[in-house]
Structure formats: structure tokens, C-alpha cells
Write a structure and sequence with these properties.
Order of helices and strands: HHHHHHHHHHHHHHHHHHH
Distance between the termini: 16 Å
Low-confidence stretches: 475-479
Shape: globular
Number of strands: 0
Largest sheet: none
Strand content: under 5%
Helix content: over 70%
């Protein structure tokens, strides 16, 4: 496997995400400001409800399809048709359940109900778009993948901003986002049909059964993931019954969601490559995974310390005064990204070696921890309790994922990396405490000092290897 090919592929994915994700975040920061806490709370509630049910037409099928197409390109149309067929059926069933429920309770025309219905259709089209993009990555055509991502997200962002300028209304905002998805779907299908002879046909029942059997552990995993990623909003709304609090809690999670582009970029490139080489070149795969974990740590730790030490200023700067209370939860939520990034990579590794049932076990136990702690902490601490629970949940999943991955990939040394992270975090926090005691708090000085301290500790623990970094930069800029 040519490292230059991986770096070039990674660069395409990185460029696409670094162009689009910040704009996407800015869109929702602007939406939070323009729509106001209550309207943004309706959006947060609608997307949380929809995501809980959308797992049925997601089903975790993308991972299985990409894994198999990466090994057998000729199976493209077979897997494409099977996945689309299953998703359409489940989407229609879920839509019928939603509409029937709202008819029975006589609440089909309320703003919240309409927002949920539009969001359901929007989510379905988003899942299909993501699937079409992942099919391209299975062919290692990351330049096309990057261009598709850029087009989709820029169109969504543009129409989202137009909707907010025209009217400060959540329903118009959602309709414009849905319209952008429909346009992208039409263009992508035309493109894939011309380039890869993409064709849809009624698949064989045996193929569908095999696909569903392989994806069943991932469906279970996704159910549990949404149980702890979105049930906190539902419980918060149920126990506190305040859309303002729900909006504040939803806002701080936008920062965590923005961080996820980093492990997502890494694994979008690495996942199909790992699937192709895992049986024939295990040393290459081990070294690739080590580098991915080191990159995650190098990026994540300075970011966590910066936001944790300056949570009030960061939250106020990003979301404005009406969301200032969110800093109380942000200081806990931001620590979530350390195990969260690792869990994303570890989960992909388990799927690659056909151990997706371990993913379901890890996320299932994490969900149990999440629900129990939310029921205990939310009544006492409101959204701060939900923020603490989010971190403890991800930590639980990391311990379980790490155990299973370590059995198949002992060369990665997950436990050793964990000890290094704990050591660096402890030294940083103790240093910050002593610094503020003796010299007081200053935003610029504290930020600069502790970013430098973190980098020095990364070098001392050999997570940041200057020689490897120099080689990487030479590969990128000199070719």
C-alpha cells in the first residue's frame, strides 16, 4: 500500500470537510441566534425524535456495503439495490406510523408536528446521500467523494442561510434544507450512473436477508447509540419541560458534533483501505491505526484543554448571551470528545474484522449507564447532569471497545495510549490549578501556556514524534 496514495486520499476528504463543516456549524450557530432559544429548542426536539426512529431505515447498512464493495467492486449494483430497497420500505412504514399517531392525537397541524414530519423526510434523504457518497469511497475515488461532499453541504448551507434571512421560522428553514437534499440526490444519481453504471433493480431476497443479518448487530448498536445520544434531550424535555433548557443543551453539543469531523475524515479514508488490506498486510494496518490514534490525541487534547479552561468565553463567543448558561455544561461535555473520537475509530475496526456484535454489546451497556445516570442527575442538575452523563457514557463504551480491539490488535497498545492521555490530562489540570492560585486567570496567557505545555507533554510521551511529523509534511508538500 502506497503511503502517498493514503495521504492524497486523506487530503481530499480533509479538504472537503474543512471547507464544509465549519460553514455548517456557522449555519446552525446563526440559526440558534436568529430562531431564538424556543424555536431552536423545537428543532433540537424534532431532530432528536426523528433520529431515534430513523435508525430503522439506516440499519447500519452502509458499513456492510462499503466493506463488501471494497473487496468486490463488481457487486456495486447488487448492494446498492438491496440497501435502497430496504431503506425505502422502512421509511414508508415509519412515516405511516408517525402520521397515524399524530392523526390519533389530533395534532397533525401544530408547528412541532410539522417540524418532525419535515425532519423525518430530510433525515431519510440525508441517509441516502451519505450512502451514495460512501459507495464512491468504496472504489477509493476520494476526489469524487470530496467533490460530492462539498457540493451537498454548500448547497445545504446556502439554502439554509437564505431561509433564515427570508424568515425567522423553523419550518421554512427545514423545508429549504430538504430542498437542497433533493437537488443533490438527483445530481449524484446521474453522476454515479454515468461513472459507475449504477443501476437499481429489485434485489434477490437471499441477498437482502444476508445483508440484514450482517447489519443486525449494527442496527442494535445504532439503537443504543441514539438511546444515549438523543434520549438525554427527550428525558430533559420530559423532566424539565422547558424548551429554553433543551435549546441551551442542544447548542453545546454542536461543538462536540463539529469535532467529529476529525475522526470521520480519518476513517472515511482509512475504513475501505483497512478492509482491503486487513487480510493480506496486517503490519500496514497496525501501523496505520497507530498513526490514526496518535493524530487524534495530538488534535484532541489541546482542543479539550483550551475549551475546558475557557468554557464561558468560548460559549459566549460562539452562541451569544442568551446561551451563556450553557458554559456550565460545556465544561463537562467537552471532555466527551476524547473517548468519543477513540470510540469512532475502534467501532470501525470491529466492523472491519466482522465483530460488529461487540459494537452492539459496548454501546448497549453504555446506553444503560446513560439512561440510569440521566434519570438520576437531570432532576438534580438539569442539563449539567446530562452533560456529565455524556462523558461517563463514552468512557464506558471506550473501556469495552478497547478491551475487544486489544484482543485482535495487541500491537496498537490501547491501554498504553490511555495511560499517556490520563498522565497528560492530570499534569495539565494540576498545572492550571497551581497557575491560577499563584498568578490568577488571564484568557490569553492561560490559553497559550497550556497549549504549549500540552505539546511538550505530547512530545515527551512520544505521541507527537517530530521525525514522523517532518516526513508527513514532506509527503504532503513535496509529493
Amino acid at each position: 500500500m502506497d503511503n502517498k496514495f493514503f495521504i492524497k486520499s486523506f487530503s481530499w476528504v480533509a479538504i472537503a470537510n474543512f471547507i464544509t463543516k465549519p460553514l455548517w456549524l456557522i449555519l446552525f450557530i446563526y440559526a440558534a441566534r436568529v430562531l431564538g432559544v424556543e424555536q431552536f429548542g423545537i428543532y433540537t426536539y424534532a431532530i432528536s425524535i426523528v433520529l431515534i426512529f430513523s435508525i430503522l431505515f439506516d440499519f447500519g447498512l452502509d458499513y456492510i456495503a462499503v466493506r463488501e464493495i471494497s473487496k468486490h467492486n463488481e457487486q456495486l449494483n447488487n448492494y446498492f439495490s438491496s440497501v435502497i430497497y430496504v431503506r425505502i420500505i422502512f421509511f414508508l412504514l415509519i412515516s405511516a406510523v408517525f402520521i397515524t399517531y399524530f392523526l390519533l392525537i389530533g395534532d397533525l397541524t401544530s408547528e412541532v408536528t410539522i417540524a418532525i414530519i419535515i425532519t423525518l423526510v430530510y433525515k431519510f434523504t440525508t441517509i441516502v446521500l451519505t450512502y451514495l457518497e460512501s459507495l464512491v469511497s468504496a472504489f477509493h475515488d476520494f476526489s469524487s467523494y470530496g467533490k460530492m461532499i462539498i457540493f451537498e453541504k454548500l448547497l445545504n448551507t446556502l439554502l439554509g442561510f437564505i431561509a433564515l434571512v427570508l424568515s425567522h421560522n423553523i419550518l421554512l428553514f427545514l423545508v429549504f434544507l430538504l430542498g437542497a437534499n433533493v437537488v443533490s440526490l438527483v445530481i449524484f444519481i446521474i453522476f454515479l450512473t454515468k461513472k459507475y453504471s449504477l443501476n437499481f433493480f429489485i434485489p434477490q431476497i437471499n441477498t437482502v436477508k444476508l445483508l440484514l443479518k450482517e447489519a443486525l448487530p449494527l442496527l442494535t448498536m445504532n439503537i443504543f447509540i441514539l438511546a444515549y445520544f438523543r434520549i438525554d434531550v427527550v428525558i430533559l424535555n420530559w423532566l424539565i419541560d422547558d424548551k429554553v433548557i433543551v435549546g441551551i443543551y442542544g447548542s453545546i453539543h454542536r461543538i462536540v458534533e463539529m469535532y467529529m469531523l476529525i475522526p470521520s475524515i480519518l476513517m472515511t479514508t482509512a475504513y475501505p483501505i483497512i478492509n482491503k488490506y486487513i487480510e493480506n498486510d496486517r503490519d500496514f494496518v497496525d501501523n496505520l491505526l497507530k498513526k490514526i490514534f496518535n493524530i487524534l490525541i495530538i488534535i484532541t487534547l489541546p482542543l479539550v484543554f483550551f475549551i475546558a479552561l475557557n468554557s464561558y468565553k468560548v460559549n459566549y463567543l460562539v452562541f451569544g448571551g442568551q446561551y451563556k448558561e450553557g458554559s456550565k455544561g460545556l465544561i463537562f461535555v467537552i471532555w466527551t470528545i476524547i473517548p468519543l473520537g477513540f470510540n469512532y475509530v475502534l467501532g470501525n475496526i470491529l466492523i472491519s474484522i466482522k465483530k460488529q456484535n461487540y459494537c452492539a454489546i459496548g454501546v448497549g451497556l453504555g446506553s444503560l449507564v446513560n439512561i440510569v445516570l440521566n434519570l438520576i442527575l437531570i432532576p438534580k442538575l438539569s442539563f449539567v447532569g446530562a452533560s456529565i452523563t455524556a462523558f461517563l457514557t463514552e468512557l464506558t463504551i471506550f473501556l469495552i471497545y478497547g478491551y475487544f480491539v486489544n484482543k485482535s490488535f495487541p500491537q496498537i497498545q490501547i491501554s498504553k495510549l490511555s495511560i499517556k492521555i490520563l498522565l497528560i490530562s492530570s499534569i495539565n489540570m494540576l498545572s492550571f490549578y497551581l497557575y491560577t492560585v499563584f498568578w490568577g486567570y488571564n484568557f490569553l496567557i492561560c490559553s497559550g501556556v497550556f497549549i504549549v505545555l500540552t505539546l511538550l507533554l505530547l512530545i515527551a510521551t512520544n505521541i507527537l514524534n517530530l521525525r514522523d511529523m517532518r516526513k508527513l509534511l514532506q509527503s504532503i508538500f513535496l509529493g
